[in-house]
C-alpha cells in the first residue's frame, strides 16, 4: 500500500500566501519572500508542499507558470526560484512535463521568454547531474537544440 502525502491546511495556506506575496513589486517584500523560501527549504516536507501547489492545485499551477512571464523581473525571478528549488531537490522525476513546458514558453513574448530561460538556466546550474542522467531520458538532448 502506497502512502499518499497530504498537506497540512494551515501550512499550505501559509505557503500560498507567500507565493502571492512574491508577486509584489515591492523589493522589501521580495527580499522577505526570498528569506522565507530559504528558511522553508530547510524543512524536509517543503518540497512536498511546492509539488502539491504546482501539480495538484490547478489554479496555482496555472498562476505560477503564467506569471513566469510577468512584467516584473522580481516576480519572474521568484517564480524561477520556486521552480528551481523543486528541481534542484531531485523532484524533476515527479514533474516530467516541467522542462518541456518551460521550453515551449521559450518562444513566447520577451518577458515569458526571459522568465522561462532564466528558470531553465537556474535548473541547469543546480541540477546538472540529473539533466544528463538516464532517469530523465537525457533532457539536455532536447533542451540544447532549443537554446541554439
Automatic annotation (TrEMBL):
<keyword id="KW-0653">Protein transport</keyword>
<dbReference type="GO" id="GO:0005737">
    <property type="term" value="C:cytoplasm"/>
</dbReference>
<protein>
    <recommendedName>
        <fullName>Transportin</fullName>
    </recommendedName>
</protein>
<dbReference type="InterPro" id="IPR016024">
    <property type="entry name" value="ARM-type_fold"/>
</dbReference>
<keyword id="KW-0677">Repeat</keyword>
<dbReference type="InterPro" id="IPR040122">
    <property type="entry name" value="Importin_beta"/>
</dbReference>
<keyword id="KW-0813">Transport</keyword>
<keyword id="KW-0963">Cytoplasm</keyword>
<dbReference type="InterPro" id="IPR011989">
    <property type="entry name" value="ARM-like"/>
</dbReference>
<dbReference type="GO" id="GO:0006606">
    <property type="term" value="P:protein import into nucleus"/>
</dbReference>
